[in-house]
Fold:
Amino acid sequence: AEIFHEPRLSEDLTWIALTLVPWTLFQVWAEHLRARQLWVGYGLLQSSVMLGATAIFMVLAPLGQAESPSFFVFAIVAASTLLWGWDFLRNDRRTRSFVSLRSSLHALLPLRATATSMFLTGTLFMVMTWSDTLMVGYFLDTESVGIYRVAFKIATLITFAQFAVNAQIAPQISAAWKANDRAGLQASVHRVALLNAALGLPAFVVLAGWGDFFLGFFSENSSDILAQTDLLRILCLGQIVNALCGPVMYLLNMTGHESAARNTMTLAVLVNVGANAGLIPILGLEGAAWATSITMSLWNVWALVAVYRKTGIRTLIFWR
Structure:
């Protein structure tokens, strides 16, 4: 809390620490539902839904309790984890006989290299996703963090459809690659590229052209947030590159090239942290936005090239 010059964060950090274990199980449940192709359940278990529910509770709760939103996150995640346990016991308990821990660990050994790379990729992606926000909090103040996150979340509307599409294409990539169906995989990726472009480009034009309209929803005649139209436009640049490059990380992970995905994220984290550290003290919030957009563009293009070199799959809409 002292690092971010905000002593009141201590209580929130305590609640968040308690949330980590149930939150991890919560994510496992979400991926399990995706593997079963239960898309509605998978969608409901995303973090945006969780944070939305938290926001609703904060609005409805008494003012004194709403000052600690992390408590609501902990309560919702813990309750959801209990639901996961109930769902597992009711529907997904396949093995009726006892399986020893030794046998279970032995069965996982062949997967250790793949699992380790994917774990590191996911961890590095999380670090990269939040490093800009954390460094804004360190170099600037909490009000700046709030303004930056509002602009960032608005910019992610460009890739809103991409999330839904990628949720379904991941198992399709794995199945097509295993069946050596390169033509089918290329056709699926091209359809995804068309959909991402059809939805992402109009969203980019609207947000870049009328950003002040959307920012206005989060202010009451506040000149501070309405003045961040350029900030929003900078963030939109990175998001549109992300949308147009397609599901490059899924392609690397689902085709046996997890180490390439890990290396891509390692490079992205180093560039992102360095760019934020160098640009935020000079340019403020726009420095964080430029660092984020440059990094997002870099790792997407880097991964796009890696996908083509390793699989021959082309992910750009105009690259046939």
